[in-house]
Specification:
The complex is a heterodimer.
Chain A: H1 3-28, H2 33-53, H3 56-73, H4 81-104, H5 113-123, H6 125-128, H7 182-188, H8 204-228, H9 232-255, E1 257-259, H10 261-264, H11 267-278, E2 282-287, E3 292-294, H12 295-316, H13 320-325, E4 332-341, E5 344-351, H14 358-367, H15 373-378, H16 381-386, H17 409-418, E6 422-428, E7 432-440, E8 445-453, E9 456-461, E10 465-471, H18 476-479, E11 480-483, E12 486-491, E13 494-500, H19 501-505, E14 519-526, E15 529-535, E16 537-545, H20 551-554, E17 559-564, E18 570-574, H21 576-583, H22 593-600, E19 610-616, E20 619-624, E21 628-635, E22 639-642, E23 645-650, E24 653-658, H23 663-667, E25 674-682, E26 685-691, E27 693-701, E28 715-718, E29 721-725, H24 745-751
Parallel strand pairs in A: 2-4, 9-18, 13-15, 20-29, 24-26
Antiparallel strand pairs in A: 1-3, 4-5, 5-7, 6-7, 8-9, 8-16, 10-14, 11-12, 12-13, 14-15, 17-18, 19-20, 19-27, 21-25, 22-23, 23-24, 25-26, 27-28, 28-29
Chain B: H1 2-13, E1 17-25, E2 28-33, E3 37-44, E4 56-62, E5 65-71, H2 72-75, E6 85-92, E7 95-101, E8 103-111, E9 115-116, H3 124-129, E10 130-135, E11 140-144, H4 146-149, H5 151-159
Parallel strand pairs in B: 2-11, 5-7
Antiparallel strand pairs in B: 1-2, 1-8, 3-6, 4-5, 6-7, 9-10, 10-11
Classes of the chains: A alpha+beta, B alpha+beta.
Chain lengths: 752, 160
């Protein structure tokens, strides 16, 4: 294929994407001449260029469309549903031909007479007076799964829209052509590309290579920094190198970001087609379209999002009559919302439909043998909702082409988890369902905790890590309990199944804690399956660059990739959910936290932030869990004072210790007294907080000030108690230590 | 006459010369055509991968990527070498991988005239791994074909 044709293809696809967006808008504002002009321009450009390149079939089809659009533009015709349906078919027809050209280099033989005939028929004024029903006799052109093998398109009169064949039974002309699966459909849609004048097209492969090279540079920088640390002459230079490298890395990562509108823009058409096919009346609202996400991740969420929207329309939003009977407005509402939250992008799909009947899930899961009868009785509402993600689960009474094949929610979860994301579901009977996809900002770099076992480093993705448990040497003998050969750890009253990393990787090793040194348990949560991973030691958290593994190592199934650490060591990235599967941890052995949450009665637990609940001098205080790096128990003698300010020499770094609760002052008398310091991250620096005890980890709910909807700052509802949140930002940096007063009022307030 | 005939046939064949990088594993001299070699990484210590197939020598960091290496010693049933080994970064249809060898020698120019296919007395395993040999003056240069050493392919061989 020559450059000219390739350029033409990209341009035309962009034009058609624009046209698609305009068409769905046109339905709402049929008189909008600007929209009509835009659509006319897209088709006209294709027609113009195509004649020049000699694609006769494409030209003919574009021409008939153009004539119809001309009438619309000149206000000789109104854009009613029939006309828009025809134009959408025209769009699909043009796309299909473009696809063939892209794949085969020529447009292949095909017959678009039916579509052309229909487009021409619409142009004659007598016909348009009696609009054809959208559901009958709609000749449709759609690329089906088979058309990849046989020349596409020519079957136009026989091919039903793959989205709605079941609902066109009166269409006698439609032959039984199997519908394309959603995945095929998604593939058939050209990738959206919005190109302003100031932008440049860059090959993704080039961006990937740049990312690799930057990763390499980061490593080299780390080594240079280590090598030059002793030489004062080079310190300035290497610091500069450090900064430039960090900026460069960020810039390259940014270059890979695309707005989610690239995927969202496909949804109005999908919702329109589906609601027509299903007889629903749906209003689609989209929010946060400018939120940006890595290109590869954007590709990866396309399918799950399509699935979720299908589900919402098919199972969620009821037909208008049913809605009215339930006392709702006939028009259903579907909301798509994207927003960045820290290092994640949250995508919410919420509908105001019927919600999910948990009892139905329970009986369905029993019927399909997904859970035992005994288990079914024990599951809480929240746990039951999780079952919809199990493979082969579908509550749809009858299998429609839209959804209900038992693939759907599990596909959503698998696809999202594949890219390191999470799926949450919330549903209330009669009020609606919200599906929340939590996607990491970028695939390439993830925060991870480096652990050691078998004298090797391994990386654990922070996303799956809920807490760390330290077992000092004197407790190794008693820390673990055994139930018929299964190691368990008693964590706050619940039993946590344990996996010994060394035994997992070298099966001839014994499952045993080393008695002569510290042991650590990393408590992991792999999509609701909780277990503890026993490792030899912990290193610091690091932002790691994920490198793919060769197929032969991927087959082992325990590793999600490999990475190069700051000290140039290689580390394998462990995949918590594969480990859970390998050792057979399942939902039924999740700990009691879910039940506890239900007991506490705060149903919005999942929505709240998680806090570390600490006690200092008899008072409770909360520290945002995301900021907590470590909990250190150490003798008071480790605390030193700089200008009467307590500091801790923490792994070679000086850590200011906040003592608003007066813990240190009380311990002063006895240098051997054990104190607990919570090491937290505050922006770029780390600070320590002295506390008496660490009590628990819990989700906090926001509080609203009485009479207003304003969220209160600095306090949260934790375990039904109003608890102050420690303001880490109020801890002054060490350099200001001399000038700072002894007490920092804001922190003291939170701790008291 | 018959001699002349073979001689002329020989002449026709001898027109192709190949550049081969020689590597040593234990006492044997092996050869890899240089156009398959992307780079030679000296004195590396690959990071072992627990639970990986035995022929995998571990992972090495190579130009921003993580390469899987294949231990030639293991493939030939030789005891593992605790010293640092050299790595040939090879390109095959399935992508890049590293081949762990004891040491890398010089590049030799050989003529196709001196080529002999695998002798039939080789055991089945070596038959699939080796790709014939060139007769050098004093010894044999046993040829390796990167395609046959690709970790993914070896995975298939081992499973069979």
């Amino acid at each position: 294929m020559d450059d000219l044709t390739r350029e033409f293809l990209i341009e035309s696809q962009e034009g058609l994407d624009r046209m698609e967006r305009c068409l769905t808008d046109l339905e709402e504002r049929p008189q909008d001449t600007a929209l009509l002009a835009e659509i006319f321009r897209s088709v006209h450009t294709i027609k113009g260029t195509t004649g020049f390149l000699g694609f006769k079939r494409l030209e003919k089809l574009a021409h008939s469309g153009e004539s119809l659009l001309g009438l619309l533009r000149d206000q000789k015709l109104t854009a009613n549903t029939t006309v828009i349906n025809a134009l959408l078919q025209l769009l699909d027809g043009l796309r299909a031909i473009l696809k063939t050209i892209e794949a085969e280099g020529n447009e292949s033989d095909g017959d678009d007479d039916v579509l052309i005939g229909w487009l021409e028929e619409l142009q004659s004024p007598t016909r348009t007076e009696q609009p054809v029903s959208a559901k009958t006799g709609t000749p449709t052109v759609h690329e089906t799964a088979q058309s990849k093998l046989t020349p596409p398109m020519p079957v136009a009169p026989a091919a039903p829209t793959s989205e709605a064949p079941a609902l066109q039974p009166e269409d006698t002309r439609s032959a039984a052509v199997p519908a394309a699966s959603p995945a095929d459909l998604a593939k058939a849609r050209a990738p959206a590309q919005t190109a302003a004048e100031s932008t440049l097209r860059v090959d993704v492969a080039l961006l990937n290579r740049m990312m690799n090279l930057v990763g390499e540079l980061v490593l080299t920088r780390n080594q240079v920094l280590q090598a030059t640390a002793a030489d004062p002459n080079l310190t300035m230079l290497s610091r500069r190198l450090d900064m430039v490298t960090a900026d460069l890395r960020e810039a390259v990562m940014k270059a890979r970001l695309q707005p989610v509108s690239n995927v969202f823009s496909k949804m109005p058409r999908l919702v329109r087609d589906l609601s027509q096919a299903l007889g629903r009346n749906v209003r689609l609202d989209m929010e946060g379209q400018e939120t940006e996400l890595d290109k590869s991740l954007l590709e990866a969420i396309k399918d799950p999002l399509t699935h979720a929207v299908r589900n919402a329309l098919d199972h969620g939003i009821e037909p208008p009559a049913a809605r009215q009977a339930a006392g709702k407005v006939p028009e259903g509402s579907l909301k798509l919302r994207a927003a960045q939250e820290g290092s994640h992008v949250i995508i919410e799909i919420s509908d105001d439909g019927a919600g999910i009947a948990v009892e139905k899930i329970r009986s369905k899961a029993l019927e399909r043998g997904l859970i035992t009868a005994e288990r079914a009785g024990q599951l809480s509402e929240r746990e039951l909702l999780q079952l919809v993600f199990l493979p082969g689960f579908s509550t749809a009474a009858q299998i429609t082409n839209v959804s209900g094949r038992g693939v759907g929610m599990d596909v959503v979860r698998t696809n999202v988890e594949k890219i390191g994301g999470k799926v949450e579901i919330e549903s209330r009977m009669g009020e609606g369902t919200t599906l929340r996809l939590r996607i990491p900002l970028t695939l390439a770099i993830i925060p991870a905790l480096i652990v050691r076992s078998l004298s090797q480093s391994f990386a654990l993705p922070q996303g799956a890590l809920s807490e760390l448990v330290h077992i000092p040497p004197d407790q190794t003998a008693t820390a673990i309990e055994w139930l018929e050969g299964a190691p368990l750890y008693r964590l706050r009253g619940g039993l946590l199944p344990l996996v010994f990393l060394d035994h997992l990787l070298m099966p001839d090793r014994e499952c045993k804690l080393a008695a002569d040194r510290d042991n650590f348990i990393a408590v992991l949560d792999a999509d609701g399956r909780r277990f503890g991973l026993v490792v030899d030691s912990l290193a610091d958290p690091e932002e790691i660059v994920v490198k793919p593994l060769s197929a032969v190592l991927k087959e082992i199934g325990l590793y999600a990739g490999a990475t190069v650490l700051g000290n140039a060591d290689l580390a394998l990235i462990l995949d918590p959910s594969s480990i859970a599967t390998r050792v057979g941890v399942d939902l039924s052995s999740r700990d009691d936290e879910a039940e506890k949450a239900v007991e506490n009665g705060s149903e919005n637990e999942t929505a709240g932030m998680r806090y570390l609940l600490v006690e200092a001098a008899g008072r409770h205080a909360a520290v945002p869990l995301s900021d907590v790096l470590r909990i250190e128990q150490l003798p008071f003698s480790r605390i030193e004072y700089v200008a009467s300010r307590p500091v801790l020499n923490f792994e070679g770094q000086l850590l200011p210790v906040e003592d608003a609760g007066g813990i240190l002052a009380a311990a002063e008398a006895d240098p051997e007294a054990q104190i607990v310091v919570v090491v937290c991250r505050e922006g770029e620096r780390h600070v320590g907080i002295a506390v008496s005890h660490v009590l628990d980890v819990a989700s906090g709910a926001s509080l609203f000030e009485a009479g207003s909807r304003a969220r209160t700052e600095g306090v949260t509802l934790l375990k039904k108690r109003v608890t102050g949140v420690v303001n880490l930002g109020a801890v002054p940096p060490l350099s200001a230590a001399e000038a700072a007063p002894q007490q920092w009022p804001e922190v003291a307030e939170a701790l008291s | 006459m018959s001699y002349q005939e073979t001689s002329s046939r020989r002449k026709q064949k001898s027109e192709t010369l190949a550049e081969i990088c020689s590597v040593r594993v234990d006492k044997t001299l092996f050869g890899v055509p240089i156009h398959h070699i992307l780079e030679i990484v000296g004195a590396a210590r690959p990071r072992p991968v627990p639970l990986a197939p035995a022929y995998v020598g571990g992972l090495v960091h190579y130009r921003g990527d993580v390469l899987t290496t294949v231990s030639l010693r293991h493939l030939l049933d030789l005891p593992p070498n605790s010293a640092k080994q050299d790595i040939l970064v090879l390109e095959s249809a399935g992508g890049c991988f590293g081949l762990l060898v004891d040491s890398v020698g010089e590049v030799l120019t050989v003529s196709s005239v001196d080529y002999e296919p695998n002798p039939s007395i080789l055991d089945e395993r070596r038959m699939t791994l080796l790709a014939g040999a060139y007769k050098l003056k004093d010894n044999l240069l046993v040829m390796l074909d990167p395609e046959r050493l690709d970790p993914m392919r070896l995975g298939g061989v081992q499973a069979a």
